[in-house]
Amino acid sequence: MKAARFDYERPADLAGALAALGQGGAKPLSGGQSLGPMLNLRLARPPLLVDVGRLAPLRQVEEGAEGTLFGAGITHAEFEDGAVPDPTPGFLARIARGIAYRAVRNRGTMGGSLAHADPAADWPTTLAALGARVHLAGPSGTRELPVEDFILGAFETALQDGEIVTGIFVPRCSAGARFGYRKSCRKVGEFAEAMCAVLADPARGVHRLVIGATEARQIVIADAAAATSDPATLDDALRAAGLAADPASLRLRQAVIRQAVAALEDESLSA
């Protein structure tokens, strides 16, 4: 099937992009790894595509003492290859390597992944665990939101009409920070059926656990120090989220969570 007819614009700057996106139903296009298939299946029929992939502000990287602000157009492959600085002890590159296939990673972007908000995608769960914040720009100006507040549900975000993701701020981890991440897929490259990310950074007083690949938004346990040592607490979180209705699904999630927590203590597992 081919995409329905649409118009195409490539603005020269961010102001032009925001003006174009202010037209009813317009959609931004960057890597196109999520939007492209939706267009071809006619699950999305925007009258106008606004190409933002080459806009300089979406390709910039700003380092600071507190963390790094990545332009929304930085690709998965650039994280994987170390082409951009990493404010964590290599956690971003590790996650990027496990996203789909290299062809997808060459084109897909961190900002596009968050805007698409697939609960089984790697970046939403990872960035929520790292305490990242999403930078947005639109007709009313700029604003920023924590990842867990930006994603409202499956394929649902806090983006307002005419608004675009411009960047993602990732806090700087201490040198001794540890990160555990596990996902369960039927085969390499597919979206996950269950996933969990855990960050332990005692020097900053941070211990977060995030459960992804749910039927809705990620489950975030902001103070997970006790939860990671008490399986009953994690089970209660799963039940509260309505994830215990399917016993097989619950067992899979419990296994993935245990593996992610275990990876914190074993460098060979977390590598």
Supply the key terms.
11 helices, 271 residues, disordered C terminus, Uridine Diphospho-n-acetylenolpyruvylglucosamine Reductase, domain 3, Diverse_Substr_Oxidored, alpha+beta, four-stranded antiparallel beta sheet, FAD-bd_PCMH_sub2, five-stranded antiparallel beta sheet, Enolase-like, domain 1, 25% strand, 31% helix
Give an account of the 3D structure.
With 271 residues, the protein is an alpha+beta fold. It has two domains: 57-171, Uridine Diphospho-n-acetylenolpyruvylglucosamine Reductase, domain 3, CATH 3.30.465; 180-270, Enolase-like, domain 1. 31% of the residues lie in helices and 25% in strands. The chain contains eleven helices and 14 strands. A five-stranded antiparallel β-sheet has the order 4-5-10-6-7. A four-stranded antiparallel β-sheet has the order 11-12-13-14, sandwiched between helices. The chain has a three-stranded parallel β-sheet with strand order 1-3-2, covered by helices on one side. The longest helix has 19 residues, at 247-265. Residues 1-175 form the FAD-binding PCMH-type domain. GO terms for molecular function: FAD binding; oxidoreductase activity. Pfam families: FAD_binding_5 (PF00941).
